[in-house]
Amino acid sequence: MFNMLNVAVQVQTTAQRTGWEGWPFTGLGSPWVAGAARLLFVLVVFIGIAWLLRVLFGPGGRLRPEEFGTEHIDERNRKKAKAKVLRQSWKDGELSDDDYEEAVKTLWKDDA
Fold first, then answer.
1. What is the pLDDT of residues 41-54, one digit of tens each?
2. DSSP string, 79-110
3. CA 61 to CA 50: how far, in whole Å?
4. What is the value of pTM for the model shown?
5. pLDDT, tens digit (0-9, with 9 covering 90-100), for 9-28
6. Residue 12 CB: number of other CB atoms within 10 A?
7. Which UniProt keywords are listed (predicted)?
Protein backbone atom coordinates (compact mmCIF):
# COMPACT_ATOMS: atom_id res chain seq x y z
CA MET A 1 0.00 0.00 0.00
CA PHE A 2 2.83 2.38 0.84
CA ASN A 3 4.26 1.67 -2.61
CA MET A 4 1.03 2.76 -4.37
CA LEU A 5 0.88 5.95 -2.33
CA ASN A 6 4.54 6.67 -3.12
CA VAL A 7 3.87 6.18 -6.86
CA ALA A 8 0.86 8.51 -6.73
CA VAL A 9 2.91 11.22 -5.04
CA GLN A 10 5.72 10.83 -7.58
CA VAL A 11 3.27 11.09 -10.48
CA GLN A 12 1.78 14.26 -9.06
CA THR A 13 5.11 15.92 -8.42
CA THR A 14 6.69 15.01 -11.75
CA ALA A 15 3.66 15.84 -13.91
CA GLN A 16 4.17 18.78 -16.21
CA ARG A 17 2.17 21.90 -15.57
CA THR A 18 -0.29 22.55 -18.35
CA GLY A 19 -1.32 26.08 -17.41
CA TRP A 20 -4.84 25.02 -16.56
CA GLU A 21 -4.21 24.45 -12.86
CA GLY A 22 -5.64 27.80 -11.85
CA TRP A 23 -8.23 28.16 -14.53
CA PRO A 24 -9.82 30.57 -15.36
CA PHE A 25 -7.64 33.12 -13.56
CA THR A 26 -4.12 31.78 -13.93
CA GLY A 27 -2.02 34.82 -14.72
CA LEU A 28 -3.47 37.44 -12.41
CA GLY A 29 -0.43 37.77 -10.18
CA SER A 30 -0.81 37.19 -6.47
CA PRO A 31 -2.97 34.38 -5.08
CA TRP A 32 -5.21 36.95 -3.36
CA VAL A 33 -6.12 38.59 -6.66
CA ALA A 34 -6.73 35.22 -8.30
CA GLY A 35 -8.92 34.12 -5.38
CA ALA A 36 -10.91 37.37 -5.45
CA ALA A 37 -11.35 37.02 -9.21
CA ARG A 38 -12.66 33.46 -8.78
CA LEU A 39 -15.08 34.62 -6.10
CA LEU A 40 -16.29 37.46 -8.29
CA PHE A 41 -16.70 35.07 -11.21
CA VAL A 42 -18.85 32.69 -9.13
CA LEU A 43 -20.97 35.59 -7.84
CA VAL A 44 -21.55 36.86 -11.37
CA VAL A 45 -22.61 33.38 -12.51
CA PHE A 46 -25.07 32.97 -9.60
CA ILE A 47 -26.49 36.47 -10.06
CA GLY A 48 -26.92 35.76 -13.78
CA ILE A 49 -28.79 32.53 -13.05
CA ALA A 50 -31.03 34.28 -10.50
CA TRP A 51 -31.77 37.09 -12.95
CA LEU A 52 -32.62 34.61 -15.71
CA LEU A 53 -34.99 32.69 -13.43
CA ARG A 54 -36.62 35.95 -12.33
CA VAL A 55 -37.19 37.00 -15.95
CA LEU A 56 -38.59 33.62 -16.94
CA PHE A 57 -40.60 32.61 -13.89
CA GLY A 58 -41.02 35.77 -11.76
CA PRO A 59 -44.13 37.95 -11.67
CA GLY A 60 -45.05 38.65 -15.28
CA GLY A 61 -42.44 36.16 -16.46
CA ARG A 62 -42.60 34.65 -19.90
CA LEU A 63 -42.91 31.05 -18.67
CA ARG A 64 -45.07 31.74 -15.59
CA PRO A 65 -48.74 30.79 -15.85
CA GLU A 66 -51.13 33.75 -15.66
CA GLU A 67 -53.09 32.40 -12.70
CA PHE A 68 -50.05 31.32 -10.69
CA GLY A 69 -49.83 33.03 -7.32
CA THR A 70 -51.55 36.35 -8.03
CA GLU A 71 -54.70 36.04 -5.90
CA HIS A 72 -53.06 37.54 -2.82
CA ILE A 73 -51.88 40.54 -4.84
CA ASP A 74 -55.38 41.28 -6.12
CA GLU A 75 -56.83 40.92 -2.61
CA ARG A 76 -54.19 43.22 -1.11
CA ASN A 77 -54.82 45.84 -3.82
CA ARG A 78 -58.57 45.71 -3.14
CA LYS A 79 -57.97 46.19 0.59
CA LYS A 80 -55.61 49.09 -0.05
CA ALA A 81 -58.21 50.77 -2.27
CA LYS A 82 -60.90 50.31 0.39
CA ALA A 83 -58.55 51.66 3.09
CA LYS A 84 -57.90 54.71 0.91
CA VAL A 85 -61.65 55.32 0.56
CA LEU A 86 -62.08 54.93 4.33
CA ARG A 87 -59.26 57.39 5.03
CA GLN A 88 -60.75 59.92 2.63
CA SER A 89 -64.17 59.54 4.28
CA TRP A 90 -62.55 60.07 7.69
CA LYS A 91 -60.72 63.18 6.43
CA ASP A 92 -63.95 64.56 4.98
CA GLY A 93 -65.66 64.08 8.34
CA GLU A 94 -68.08 61.41 7.16
CA LEU A 95 -66.64 58.89 9.69
CA SER A 96 -65.84 59.46 13.34
CA ASP A 97 -62.44 58.46 14.73
CA ASP A 98 -63.87 55.36 16.41
CA ASP A 99 -65.77 54.26 13.30
CA TYR A 100 -62.66 54.73 11.14
CA GLU A 101 -60.45 52.74 13.52
CA GLU A 102 -63.01 49.93 13.73
CA ALA A 103 -63.42 49.78 9.94
CA VAL A 104 -59.65 49.68 9.35
CA LYS A 105 -59.24 47.02 12.05
CA THR A 106 -61.99 44.92 10.45
CA LEU A 107 -60.48 45.39 6.99
CA TRP A 108 -57.00 44.18 7.95
CA LYS A 109 -58.10 41.63 10.58
CA ASP A 110 -57.42 38.58 8.38
CA ASP A 111 -53.85 39.68 7.58
CA ALA A 112 -52.65 39.81 11.17
1. 999 999 999 999 99
2. HHHHHHHHHHHHHHTSS-HHHHHHHHHHHTGG
3. 13
4. 0.44
5. 555 555 566 655 656 676 66
6. 8
7. Membrane, Transmembrane, Transmembrane helix
